[in-house]
Amino acid sequence: MIVDLRSDTLTKPTKEMLAVMASAEVGDDVFGEDPTVNLLERRMAELFDQEAGLFCASGTMANQLAIKAQTQPMDEIIAHELCHIYYYETAGYAYNSGVSIKLCKGKDGLISPEDILTNIQPDYDWLPKTSLVTIENTHNKAGGTCYDLSTMQAISKTCNNHNLKLHLDGARIWNAMVAKNYQPEDFGSLFDTISICFSKGMGAPVGSVLVGNAVTIKKARRIRKAFGGGMRQAGILAAACLYSMDHHYELLQKDHQRAQALGSIFEQQHWIASVSPISTNIVIFDIVDSLSPQKVLEKLSEIGIKMIQFGPQTIRCVTHLDITDEHIHYVEEKLKNLPL
Ligand SMILES: *Cc1c(COP(=O)(O)O)cnc(C)c1O
After folding, report:
1. Which of 46, 138, 193, 237 could be joined to 172 by an S-S link, Cβ 3.0–4.6 Å?
2. Which of 169, 173, 281, 318 has most ligand 1 atoms within 8 Å of CB, for mutation?
3. Read out DSSP for 35-86?
4. Which domains can be identified in the chain, with CATH numbers?
């Protein structure tokens, strides 16, 4: 058995999902004529109480479009120091948009209105101009932590008061919705733009949707074309996203339960120093100083369990659609006699 816990991007489309993709009604989306893409974009805009949506090839593309559509060169964006936009998007904010980034420490991956206030640049010719705040919910690097609704409301208010745009990196927004039990209409309109991913826990092979007001999304559509992201019969992919909303969203709760179960198993291991609190589907733990993550990962891999290094002594696991109770049981049994 192979238990691949490296990422929730590893999920493969199910037979049922493939069948829906194969029979999707399609057209040329650059002409705006793909009915399935149009349906997905409309459905997401309505769900999150926004005017329009834009289907994108990746979460990174959706984030990059949001930054480019809402900043000018020489602007600055405010973000958490461990955020995906800073860490894992190849400095795309600088490359694509010509902006700098002001990183705040926050707490557990989450930033506060005070973090924003202390990082807004004063209005001088020699300083970048703060124009956009981005937050991540759930927060990947901090271990799947989620914002309270009240914090998102307060952040939105602060941004409004200071004329800053607010973007939500919602790579795992579905997980946050399940964990915090908020409805999309409760928080959707707090943001100027939201990137919503389908290719992680939701289990679609490809796709994110950027939602926002009509003007911003029209601008983002032009930029998407310039980035080479105008797709043609993309309805095949959009169909998988629609399917995931109808059939996989309700399974995320199970992923969270399995993450908790993994956490309890890890608590028992002598070679694990500490397990971080688990909020959603991400489990992060530190191994004891006498071992190296490379060695641990190698030993785990030999018995069919895959995880990834996430820091000098830190390892990450993620539960997802293709991880079952049997897999969790397998991990529990195998770790009983792991030769470490
Ligand atoms: C995965 C991820 C993204 C973007 O992912 P793609 O691989 O480009 O689809 C963006 N933000 C966060 C927090 C992520 O975890």
Report:
1. 138
2. 169
3. HHHHHHHHHHHHHTT-SEEEEES-HHHHHHHHHHHT--TTEEEEEETT-HHH
4. 3-8+251-335 (3.90.1150.10), 9-248 (3.40.640.10)
